[in-house]
Amino acid sequence: MHAPVQKNEYCDVGFEDLTHDGNGVAKVEGYPIFVPNSLPGEKGKIKIVKTGKGYGFGRLMELYEESRHRQEPPCPIYKECGGCQIQHYSYEGQLAAKTKHVRDVMTRIGKLENVKIHETLGMTDPWHYRNKAQVPVGERNGELIAGFYQKRSHEIIDMDACIIQDQKNDEVIQVVKDILKKYSVRAYDEHKHSGAIRHIMTRIGHKTGEVMVVLVTRTKELPHQNKIIEEIAGSIKGIKSIVHNVNSKRTNVIFGKDTKVLWGEEVIYDYIGDVKFAISARSFYQVNPAQTKVLYEQALEYAGLSGEETVIDAYCGIGTISLFLAQKAKKVFGVEIVPEAIEDAKRNAELNEIANAEFEAGEAEVVIPRWYKEGNKADVLVVDPPRKGCDEALLQTIIDMKPKKVVYVSCNPATLARDLRVLEDGGYKTAEIQPVDMFPQTMHVEAVAKIELV
Ligand code: SAH
Questions:
Q1: What DSSP character marks residue 89?
Q2: Where along the chain is the active site annotated (predicted)?
Q3: What does the buried/exposed string (b/e) look like for 188-219 if buried means 16 or more CB atoms within 10 Å of the residue's CB?
Q4: How many C-alpha atoms does 52 have within 13 Å on its Cβ side?
């Protein structure tokens, strides 16, 4: 689409939407212009910064009409950090924007009509919700610092607290930072590829209060290992596990291959509802435990199990959804691509004495077609794929297998909409969709869809 405006031009616009990175969207003759720090419902003067084929960028010069949902971002480092995108939007506004986003993509990409899309389920207190923190470590004027990468850069800014983190995580990071300082441990320098400590990771069991600390170093050894372990173990309440990971590569990836338990257990435990989970340093585990329960309960409700069903849980991770469903199903089969996660899933089944769940490592799009060929069908199929959505081969197998119900848990509404269209064309009908806010203050939104065979 040809740009109806030019660089450096000023225009008066109204803002309608928010993009996934929290920019407001204004339209000039249908041409979208993305403008940081503007909110839906606002009006203002913008200066065009850049124009491209399909869209442009602008800067907000003056606000004529302010949204009643605009608020002062409570975090003092909000602007520099970029971890959150919409702290300047009231929580009510955030939830409404997420619902609208899901509704828009279902119409635009999914071409779905008459689907009941509920209001996004939010949190009562949308702060301090994260159970896991991963902070990069660096040095400033010879002093060790740990915090976050400045927006669009690799500069580390020191941080005392992150207000979407569990306060315990902030406390743990500060304690570990002080101990590392005390022993003058050198931080990793990514330009020189020198120094030792690269990242501090901490995870807390929301229900149990158990804490794990992971120290990632470039060096094979953690300097002053014994002293540091002793001090961490002695000063953090609830500490159950101290883990060392070695990442000696020049890379942005946080973890290296080698992980070793230095002190305590290999795992910490947590509960979602009544199901207990063992979580190791490298396991994928949902970061917002309170909302995870809401999400899984919704999936369970949509599955509508009576106790007689065979269920397949594709993309099962460490078996979280599978074990949740197993309590109400005859049998659950979980499949997941990461073998270590499958080991965790089996261990978690045992831990909860759940005997009707089985797990297999492999690609969902390979394993499930094979199960189907061997005559193993599901009454209910649950998928919870990564952002890119389901593989086509898996969708085709679902259409052939014809489970009565499909429950789709999605972290990306755009690929959910795309996949729902495929299922609709294959004989299914989307009955309803429930968005759930797992990441307040950011633009991410999860959604659960109930899909039935017609
Ligand atoms: N249901 C789990 C995990 C969801 S995240 C939970 O709620 O905790 C998505 C999972 O899909 C990840 O564990 C990832 O490793 C896995 N995955 C990615 N591609 C896959 C594929 N092709 N086949 C099976 N699993 C896959």
A1: B
A2: 411
A3: bebeeeebbbbbbbbbbbbeeebbbbbbbbbb
A4: 8
The structure tokens 């540091």 sit at 228
Instruction: Say if residue 304 is in the same domain as residue 190.
Output: no
Which pLDDT value is given to residue 20?
A: 80
Q: Which of 277, 279, 282, 284 to mutate to test the pocket of ligand 1 (most atoms within 8 A of CB)?
A: 284
Cβ distance 352 to 323 under 8 Å?
yes
Contact predicate 137/198, CB 8 Å? yes
Asked if 67 and 52 touch (Cβ cutoff 8 Å), the reply is: no
Residue range 328-341, pLDDT digits in tens: 999 999 999 999 89
Q: How far is the CA of 317 from the centre of ligand 1 (A)?
A: 5
Domain limits at 28? Answer: 9-65
Residue 213 CA: distances (Å) to CA of 233, 243, 338, 421, 432: 10, 6, 23, 43, 41
Q: Give the chain's domain count.
A: 3
CATH number of domain containing 227? 2.40.50.1070
For residue 386, how far is its CA from the centre of ligand 1 (angstroms)? 6
Q: Is residue 76 part of a domain?
A: no
**Tens digits of per-residue pLDDT, 233-246?**
999 999 999 999 99
DSSP 185: P
Question: Taking CB atoms and a 6 Å cutoff, what residues make up the pocket around ligand 1?
Answer: 284, 286, 315-317, 320-321, 335-338, 341, 363-365, 384-386, 391
Pocket test for ligand 1, best of 272, 337, 409 (most atoms within 8 A of CB): 337
What is the enclosing helix (H) or strand (E) of 203?
strand 197-204
- Out of 272, 306, 327, a domain closes at 272
Give residue 252 CA to ligand 1 midpoint distance, Å.
22
* Tokens standing for residue 161: 């607290």
Q: What digits encode the pLDDT tens for the residues 409-450? A: 999 999 999 999 999 999 999 999 999 999 999 999 999 999
Q: Is 411 a catalytic residue?
A: yes
Annotated binding residues for S-adenosyl-L-methionine = 286, 315, 336, 384
Q: Which atom of ligand 1 is nearest to the CA of 322?
A: 1
Distance CA 150, CA 142 (A): 19
User: What are the DSSP calls for 265-311, one per residue?
Assistant: -SEEEEEETTEEEEEETT----S-HHHHHHHHHHHHHHHT--S--EE
| Token pair listed for 342 | 């499958």
